[in-house]
Design goal:
This protein is mainly alpha-helical. It has one domain. It has a two-stranded antiparallel ribbon with strand order 1-2.
Length: 217
């Protein structure tokens, strides 16, 4: 009896893992991660460009004091973006991340300006905004490449319906067995793509949790 119960405990997790793999392409979590990865490219490029240009401009204009309000504006915008990104992460995985308390209204005295410029919360937000650009390129590439290959390979018999010579990612299909191999690879990729997208989204979220300021930190 004990051996039977032990064997059943081993069978059930294996069956659950198999069902999880087979159902992954149909799960909302998969498409939520895919949408998150795709949206990270335009969001990341816009914020990274704006913050990089703003910081560069602010530093270049410091000798004429015009750079101070530019830097303060960029840091304030970075904190706003950090809050928006925390809400986007909550949409991704459901975890509650409370943004750091907002700064009080600025006072244009040197001690107040210096304190705002030295605020590590603002600089961490700005660092994340800059990293969001290349990070968005990576996650967008993973999302598009994984699903595009799965769709192209799995449907190869349809768009190469004449059964003649075909090519996909450098692999030349000339014999029927070659076309079958491409289709099988596409079906496998169809079940691998969800895990690639989930992994990319989790890595993005982990980096955000490390950099973005929250109230519990």
């Amino acid at each position: 009896m004990h051996q039977a119960n032990l064997a059943q405990r081993h069978v059930l997790p294996a069956r659950d893992r198999a069902l999880d793999i087979l159902s992954a392409p149909m799960r909302a979590q998969t498409w939520r991660a895919t949408a998150f990865n795709l949206a990270s490219l335009p969001i990341g490029l816009v914020t990274a460009t704006a913050v990089t240009v703003g910081l560069s401009l602010g530093v270049a204009l410091l000798p004429v004091l015009v750079g101070l309000p530019v830097l303060l504006g960029v840091l304030a915008a970075s904190r706003w973006f950090a809050g928006a990104e925390l809400r986007r992460l909550h949409w991704l995985d459901g975890r509650i991340r409370r943004p750091a308390p907002s700064q009080p209204r600025p006072e244009w005295t040197w001690p107040a300006v210096r304190a705002r410029l030295a605020d590590p919360t603002s600089w961490r937000s700005a660092a994340y905004a800059v990293i969001a650009g290349p990070l968005g390129i990576v996650t967008f590439t993973i999302a598009t490449a994984s699903w595009a290959y799965a769709a192209a390979a799995a449907t190869e018999p349809f768009w190469n319906g004449d059964g003649g010579s075909g090519r996909l990612l450098g692999f030349v299909a000339e014999r029927p067995v070659d076309h079958l191999a491409i289709t099988c690879a596409g079906l496998v990729a169809f079940f691998v793509a969800p895990w690639l997208n989930r992994g990319a989204a989790r890595a993005h979220a982990a980096l955000a949790d490390h950099l973005l300021p929250t109230r519990h930190r």
